[in-house]
Amino acid sequence: MTKSELKRAMVVEKWMEGRLTEQDVARTLGISIRQAYRLKAKYRHGGAKAIAHGNRGRKPVHTLADSLKQRVMSLYRDRYLEAIPPTLPSFWPNTRTSI
């Protein structure tokens, strides 16, 4: 778990013990009171692990396949790389390009 997720778990746990109010939780975590109640319900049902983001470790749905990425890169190298003009500093090889 990340530091922010651990902090969320600790704050929710203190709230469940009665040491914090829902306003304190919302203010501390920078969320609304409604979202604080949602976190409390998630924590109650699944513990600290339930507070972690559900998509952790998964590949995004809109990710392109690796084979398609390789195909695009090979087409770019083979067909279009020579058509792109060189950058301006390559016209003057003796100039310095420090910023």
Detail the poorly predicted runs. Answer: none
Total beta-strand segments? 0
Q: What is the global morphology?
A: elongated
State the helix count: 4
Give the topology string: H per helix, E per strand: HHHH
Alpha-carbon distance between the two ends: 40 Å
Using only C-alpha atoms, the radius of gyration works out to: 26 Å
Overall residue-averaged pLDDT value: 85
Account of the protein in words:
The chain has helices at 3-17, 22-29, 33-46, 66-80. It has a domain at 3-51. The chain contains 4 helices and no strands. With 99 residues, it is mostly helical. The model has no long low-confidence stretch (mean pLDDT 85). Helix content is 53%, strand content 0%. It is elongated and about 70 Å long.
Short description:
The chain is mostly helical and about 100 residues long.
What are the SSEs and their pairings?
Layout (H helix, E strand, L loop, with lengths): L2 H15 L4 H8 L3 H14 L19 H15 L19
Helix pairs in contact: 1-2, 1-3, 2-3
